Prior knowledge:
It is built from 7 helices and 2 strands. It has a two-stranded antiparallel ribbon with strand order 1-2. It is mainly α.
Amino acid sequence: xxTCKNCGAQLPEDDSIRFCANCGAPLEPDAVPPTAxxxxxxxxxxxxxxxxxxxxxxxxxxxxxxxPPTPPMYQQPxxxxxxDKGGCLxxxxxxxxxxxxxxxxxxxxxxxPITARACGIGALVSVILEVVLFIIIFIISFALQMSVFDxxxxxxxxxx
Length: 160
Ligand SMILES: [Zn+2]
């Protein structure tokens, strides 16, 4: 027994009848309106889930998804980390304490690239300057010893 989709009234099984005798709603033998109402919801969730996989990159290379996220993560930390300001303070501190600078550089290399860079540069410059200073002191002391030795030898020759 067919019923009206609109009002639910029982209808005579006659294909010639196109409209409900009770409410006058048009009668669709294939019940298109209900089907059309049910079909859209089901494809919608399906479409919501389906597009991401065939989106392109992930499907072509499952491991290709790794490189794209990684660069953004390396580029974001400077922006996301408000503490990563670098600056002369850390550079100066690491200049005074190259060991600390080296440690800080290794620790912050991931989280705070800018600050780590400042520390690394400070420590590096500090080490270089210390090496240069050491060489200069060595040369000066060597020259001093030579001059002292000269004076001592001349003093000796004068005494003798
Ligand atoms: Zn009806």
